Amino acid sequence: MSGTLFLVATPIGNLEDMSFRAIRTLKEADLIACEDTRTSRTLLSHFEIRTPVTSYHEFNKFEKAEELLDGLLAGKNIALITDAGTPGISDPGEELVSMAYERGLEVVSIPGACAFVNAAVSSGQPVRRIAFEAFLPKDKKERQRIMSEIADETRTIVVYEAPHHLKKTLAELREVLGGDRNLTLCRELTKKFEEKKKTTFDEALAFFEDNDPRGEYVLVIEGMSKEEQRAGQAERFSELSIEEHVEHYIEEGMDKMSAMKAAAKDRGVSKRDIYAALNK
What is the pLDDT of residues 98-115, one digit of tens each? Predict the structure, then answer.
């Protein structure tokens, strides 16, 4: 019989957040795949876990995955851990899980700490709908594409950032979201110097002019309000002719009558006005 791939969440700072189930799973596994074996040995040693370990990280995620999958197919139970938090979130565990499913293997998640969930629920921002972006791309074109999507996002947005990039990222986000947009800066979650600051982009950048960012940050950002969204759509559609506006909806798959109705609603006019304009 094939073995099971266990995704084991580990603490993001405070070792007391390690669950009994996580400890037992790591002790009973045949092998533990770690993002960084040096980092993980501190955790494993603390809980007297002596299971053999191997490295699995961004730079070997495909070739090493094949080796791990062969082990699972041979009947080994393998636990995957990341440096901190839940495997598969902003790390190569995502690829391993996908490949495990392709081979019909069982995947079990052992829940525990997760930085973006911890930050979001304690941020004071709305959390019913969340857009999780993790670390923004370094590639300039890809970063601009993500920024343009964030600009129209109505859900609460969660972003990870390192201290040495924080001010640059805050400035970029202010450009697309506005200086008065609300956000909560969460740093050093679960650690001794944990801190959360509910603020705006203008206030945050002013603060960091005289204070250097310290520790890893999670940014929990208020989404665009419905009023702002409608105003933005109205501005964009006002640049279109009525013909172009109706054609926009037809290209999205609407029939002509539905497209006319949608265009009329966007412009705050009657469908009769749209019909008349199209038949001049």
Answer: 999 999 999 999 999 999
Task: Let me know: does 8 contact 25? Beta carbons within 8 Å.
Answer: yes
Bridge partner residues of 184 (DSSP): 198, 220
Residue 134's beta-bridge partner residues? 159
Residue 80: strand pairing partners = 7, 33
The vertex-271 CA angle with 267 and 274, nearest 5°, equals 70
Please provide the DSSP assignment of 89-113 as one string: SSSTHHHHHHHHHHTT-EEEEE---
Burial class (CB in 10 A: 0-12, 13-18, 19+), 80: buried
Contact between 67 and 99 under an 8 Å Cβ cutoff? The reply is no
Helix ranges, the chain (H): 20-28, 37-46, 63-73, 93-102, 115-121, 140-151, 166-177, 201-210, 226-238, 242-251, 256-267, 271-278
> For the segment 165-216, what is each residue's pLDDT rounded down to a tens digit?
999 999 999 999 999 999 999 999 999 999 999 999 999 999 999 999 999 9
pLDDT tens digits, one per residue of 251-264:
888 898 888 888 88
Place of tokens 């960012």: 213
pLDDT at 118: 96
The two three-digit tokens of residue 240, written as one number: 């279109």
**Cα(223)–Cα(229) distance, rounded to whole angstroms?**
10
Interacting residues of 211 by C-beta distance below 8 A, sequence separation 6+: none
pLDDT of residue 152: 86
Res 260: pLDDT: 87
